[in-house]
Structure formats: structure tokens, C-alpha cells
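Q: I'm building a small set of examples for a reading group on sequence design. Run inverse folding on the following structure and report the sequence directly after it, with nothing in between.
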């Protein structure tokens, strides 16, 4: 069993020494430097307080490219993007940026930058894959376009519902997304089975004068998009921080002796809660 002793609180002398040593010059936050130092000490087993049977395994390589983590409501293929060299020192958390991928341009918000991103990517095994890239920080014109897109998304809701009734289709609209460059308009919906929406797509394309994509999603994806509060009183995990869904089975509940409370193990999506997987290891 792995045992970890957490480090004692930093003294003022230790803090001053760390600042003067400038251990991680690329990090803007001192507290980020403290976290990074402890992460690297654990990985190198400097404090000799962590043991693991897998210590002989090689760590994945560290991707040294300039990469940041972003949050985007569009359909980018990754939550990580490349930064051009000229923007490296000008992008900070919570900034809005324009992202370019193979077939789309989207607006995204920066979540984290610096060494923490590299270590996180190494931990989840990402290295040297193709990534979208930042075109620029957003301008006032970009933000005005986003505002117009959001307004047009709201107008499209009523048109979609009227068209669904017209063609007598069993579809529940979850969300609508206008691509930033307005080359595509996405409609996300749930349905009990397959839906023949060809006539619906033609009518929507004629109305909005752009390419239409209708995407059927599952109930867990619906919960992730809509968001809400779980029985624990916190935001849905899928909405707030989970990037991918794991396969959740009753075996996970059985291994944790939770089967006696099966009635409390389902989330608002009527699927087993994602948090059942958090402590299984």
C-alpha cells in the first residue's frame, strides 16, 4: 500500500529561500512553485516518504512545447492548445483567446499555464500529439461576435422546436452552439432511438444559411452540458472538471460495500454516479 507523508507547512525562511532561488522561473505564482517543487520531490522520492511497487516503471516523457489548458464550449478536439512563441509571456489564466483547429475557429478561456500544465499532461500520458493553436487574444470585435452568436443561438431554439413538431420527431433539445466563425450551427439533442432528421436539417439550413449539424447525445452528456447540483451539494463532477466519462458499474459499488444504498447511487441523469470511481483504487 502506498503511503504519503504530506510536507510540513512552509516557514518564512523557507519561503524566502524558495523565492530567491527562483526554482521555476516560468511560473508567475509563488504558490505554484511550491506545489511544483513538492510534486517533483515526490516523483524523485527525495523525501523517501513515498513507496510504490511501480517505481521501476518509466514516467512518460515531458512535452516541452508551449502548451496551456483551456475551457471551450465549442467542439475542439483537445482541452490543451499550443501558444505561439510571441504570446508565451502574454497569456494568463482567465484570458479569452481565439483558437484555430483543423476545421473550426472557436473562443476559449484559459484555465492554467506554465509547468503545472506540463506535469498534468505527463501524468495523463499526453505527449507530442497534434493540438489546436492560439491565433490571438480576443479583441473587442471578437467579443461582439460572440455576443451576437449567443443571441442567435437563443433565437434558434424556438425555430428548432417548431420544426421538430412540424415533422413529428421525438427529439429533446439540449443545447445549441454557433461556431465562432459561423461556418456551422450545432444542435445537441437526446432521443430514445435513432431519428431521421434529414428534412429537419434541410429546413434549418435554409433558415440559418449555414451548415447544420444535429448530434444525438446520451443522458450523461446532457448532464455535462446543462450542469446542476448533485446530492452532495456541489456542481456535477462531469460539468465542473471531468473531461471524459469512465465506465461505472455496480461492481464498483459492491467493492466499496455500498450496495445497501443503491437508491442513492444514481445521479440526476439516472446513471450511476461518476464519483463511485474516485476511491476505488
Amino acid at each position: 500500500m502506498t503511503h504519503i507523508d504530506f510536507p510540513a507547512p512552509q516557514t518564512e525562511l523557507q519561503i524566502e529561500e524558495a523565492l530567491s532561488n527562483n526554482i521555476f522561473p516560468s511560473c508567475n505564482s509563488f504558490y505554484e512553485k511550491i506545489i511544483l517543487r513538492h510534486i517533483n520531490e515526490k516523483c524523485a522520492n527525495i523525501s523517501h516518504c513515498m513507496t510504490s511497487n511501480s517505481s521501476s516503471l518509466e514516467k512518460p516523457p515531458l512535452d516541452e512545447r508551449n502548451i496551456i489548458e483551456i475551457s471551450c464550449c465549442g467542439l475542439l478536439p483537445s482541452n490543451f492548445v499550443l501558444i505561439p512563441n510571441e504570446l508565451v509571456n502574454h497569456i494568463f489564466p482567465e484570458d479569452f483567446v481565439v483558437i484555430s483547429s483543423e476545421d473550426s475557429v472557436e473562443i476559449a478561456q484559459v484555465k492554467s499555464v506554465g509547468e503545472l500544465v506540463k506535469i498534468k499532461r505527463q501524468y495523463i500520458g499526453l505527449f507530442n500529439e497534434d493540438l489546436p493553436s492560439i491565433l490571438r487574444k480576443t479583441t473587442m470585435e471578437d467579443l461582439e461576435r460572440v455576443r451576437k452568436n449567443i443571441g442567435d443561438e437563443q433565437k434558434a431554439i424556438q425555430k428548432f422546436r417548431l420544426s421538430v413538431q412540424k415533422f413529428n420527431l421525438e427529439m429533446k433539445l439540449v443545447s445549441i452552439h454557433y461556431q465562432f466563425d459561423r461556418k456551422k450551427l450545432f444542435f445537441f439533442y437526446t432521443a430514445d432511438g435513432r431519428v431521421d432528421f434529414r428534412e429537419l436539417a434541410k429546413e434549418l439550413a435554409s433558415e440559418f444559411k449555414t451548415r447544420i449539424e444535429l448530434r444525438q447525445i446520451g443522458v450523461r452528456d446532457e448532464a455535462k452540458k446543462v450542469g446542476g447540483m448533485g446530492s452532495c451539494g456541489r456542481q456535477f463532477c462531469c460539468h465542473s472538471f471531468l473531461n471524459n466519462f469512465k465506465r461505472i458499474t455496480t461492481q464498483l459499488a459492491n467493492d466499496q460495500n455500498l450496495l445497501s444504498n443503491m437508491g442513492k447511487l444514481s445521479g440526476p441523469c439516472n446513471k450511476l454516479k461518476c464519483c463511485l470511481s474516485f476511491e476505488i483504487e
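The first helix runs from residue 12 to 21.
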